[in-house]
Amino acid sequence: MKQQQEQHLDISAVLAFMLIPLGGFATDIYLPSFPSMASDLGVGVGQIQLSLLLFMVSLGVSQFFAGAVLDSFGRYRISMGSLVVFSAASVAIAISRQIEVIYAMRVLQGLTVSLIIVGKRAFFVDSYSGEKLKHYTSLFSIVWAIAPVVAPFVGGYLHNQWGWQASFYFLSLATTLIFFLELSYSGESLRELRVFQWKPIIKTYGNMLTTADFALGVVIVGLSYALLVIFGMTSPFVIEHVYGFSPVISGYSSLLSGTAMMSGGIISKLLMNYPLRQKLYVAVTLQLLLAVTMLAAVRLNDNLPVLLMFTFSLHVGSGFIFNIIYAYCLQRFTQNAGIASGITGGGVYLISSLTNFVLTHLIRIDRAEPLVYANLIIITGLALVIPVFLKASFNLRGRQIQISNP
């Protein structure tokens, strides 16, 4: 097996950071194309949204098990194979005219992306320690947030020039390029493979999922991300059908949303020495106040600037909370980094996809006002879970935890 070479470690770290946002790229890049895809394929809006939810569920469920597989069989060969399959599935989506084939390929993409990104997050735990590891893990969610910033913007322009298929050709080309770079510079980072035994693995999963602060932390990051996803799923129809703008404007709007989430992550890093309790309470209280104010503003003047102004503010808070708790969960079980990474990452997609599936079926989000109601429901969920999380973290550690990096 090809081992990671020390002289190429920094290049491998850059490649790992390039792949960590892959799930977000595959999620967000075709959001501006939703209306056109529905029209071109002759299917309903809900069927196109289902392709996104299937990808997210596949990505979420498979991440739960990806960690155990990667801890037992290594990171490198599985990641390389997954890149090849993901690239091929992207081409299959671009040339397909059958929504069922697209569904199957999106599920396959979710599986392969989970193996890639869980392995790349674990790569840093394998390769670094101490302050350097803390520095890198604090960057995870900020780097991950690049996808919601860049992907819809890129997707909007690709769609405008060559149609919705161009986004999937782009994904195929990008992952093929990274495959060859990985082939040249990367290798196996796991020093010692763990024997794949069901009973110890199941016990490890059970211990993690029944650890209250960890499990509640996963719920918090899932709900925080759900706020971003519900906007990404529904805003193209509002922006293009209600306000009458183009897919490029939808892409810009999603870019603004992603920039807000990244900004929240950066702010949380700058405030990392402030008490955890105060940061979380202030953030979720401001989100509640903003959501209520947004509802009144939209009722008085329903237009794109109002929608984007409040969405930006809400997503800054979402990114702030997400970054703090995401890093917390990844550092909670360092001896089983792959499994902890898988549960945390999988939980983000499972909880956010389930939340948005329920909301889009309970609320017909075809205007700005129903979107605000969906935001209020998600933020109320955060407001209820955060105090329980803080109590659990205090009780389990015997003191209020101060996270060394947000």
From TrEMBL:
The keyword Transport applies. The keyword Zinc does not apply. GO terms for cellular component: plasma membrane. GO terms for molecular function: sodium:proton antiporter activity. Its main location: membrane. The chain crosses the membrane at residues 12-31, 51-70, 77-95, 101-118, 139-158, 164-185, 206-233, 245-268, 280-300, 306-330, 337-359, 371-390. Pfam families: MFS_1. It is found in: Membrane. It comes from Dyadobacter soli. It comes from the Bacteria. Residues 12-395 form the Major facilitator superfamily (MFS) profile domain. This is Predicted arabinose efflux permease, MFS family. It is a multi-pass membrane protein. One of its GO terms (biological process) is xenobiotic detoxification by transmembrane export across the plasma membrane. Keywords: Membrane, Transmembrane, Transmembrane helix, Transport.
